[in-house]
Amino acid sequence: MIAEFHFDQKDRAVYEREFAARLPHRILDNHIHIWTRECLTIPRSAYAVYKTYKPWTDYDFMEEFTLEDCENLAGTILPDRRLDFSYFGLPFPQIDREKSNAYVVSHATACRRAFYYMPGQFEDVSAVGESLLQNPYFVGLKPYPDLVQGGGDRAGIYDMLNRSALEFADRHDLVVILHIPRKGRMRDAENRRELLEIIRTYPHIRLIIAHVGRAFCYADVEGTIDFLKDFENVSFDTAFVQDADVLAYLMRLVPSEKIVFGSDAPLAYARGKDVVINNRHYYATEHPAPWGIAPAKEGFVDFTYYFYEQLRALLFASKSVYGAKEERHLENIFYRNALRLMGEKGEKIYA
Ligand SMILES: [Zn+2]
């Protein structure tokens, strides 16, 4: 669970005032990390070391996040909606990838939710492929740069997604949610070259570019994702993007059929906002954390969830791009597209 989660009158007021009338009746969150503390490979005494890097390796802050945690929180902050979920593990070296995958597979299957498998760098995916394909809840792959030896900064797309994984995904029309690696993100020439090659070589992969290509600031998105706009099998997810300019840019660039909502839970349920200062993004946090920026004085700020800040930015962008006719577009973004990408399996899982 996220430390100190609570839902109070002020949060409810935000929901009622800003979201209740405009959010679709149905929401499918297609970007959720779940794991249990048994998946951690480090002892509690080492948490202090890893928490300095990023919220995702701050295990004092979030030691585990179970499927039940997720569904309880979503039901709390999004009342009166039909909520659906799809899951994957937490892809960091401090988490045992196999245990994390095993938890996701067994738990999502038992609860009848779609899930994505995290492939390893050198794993022959065809070896586990058969049993995954037999599972009616398996919909795709979620590779990640931090699972690559030598650290996330050095990873290229082929390190995250080897030939066996690409061929497997292509052969079976799978969804692949791709976290763009390398510091330069979509501006990196190698990333662009690899992406184009993969899209052309494996045309049946249903690619979802996570976090709009890791564009958390307008400077990250302007002119950088345009080369992907005409590929039919390339969509973008909005996970953790809280900058309305980024989302409006995306909405103007591609049809709403190519935009998929995801929250990036559990961090989405913490209080704060991803803020942009001088073309860099920072986690503004309610309480001081080594990976965030926070006021030194207690009680100085009045924050709601990152999740709500995402909805706020998305709805703001929607109004400016789609105007009064936003309803159909928002339904596409919030559930129809993810369902369609999952194909027949999605129809059955979420019938
Ligand atoms: Zn994520």
Structure description:
It comes from Candidatus Pullichristensenella excrementigallinarum. InterPro entries: Amidohydro-rel (IPR006680), Metal_Hydrolase (IPR032466). One of its GO terms (molecular function) is hydrolase activity. β7, α11 (244-253) and β8 form a beta-alpha-beta unit. The mean pLDDT is 95. The protein has 351 residues and is of the alpha/beta class. α1 (9-19) runs parallel beside α12 (306-322) and α11 packs across α12 (306-322). It has helices spanning 9-19, 47-50, 67-77, 97-110, 125-134, 157-160, 163-171, 189-201, 211-214, 218-221, 244-253, 306-322, 326-349; strands spanning 26-29, 82-87, 114-117, 138-141, 175-178, 206-209, 234-237, 259-260, 272-277, 280-285, 292-293. It is globular and about 50 Å long. It has a single domain (9-349), classed as TIM Barrel. It binds zinc ion. Zinc ion binds at residues 31, 33, 239, 264.
Ligands (ions, cofactors included):
zinc ion
Helix content: 25-40%
Number of domains: 1
CATH superfamily heading: Metal-dependent hydrolases
Which descriptor suits the 3D outline?
Answer: globular
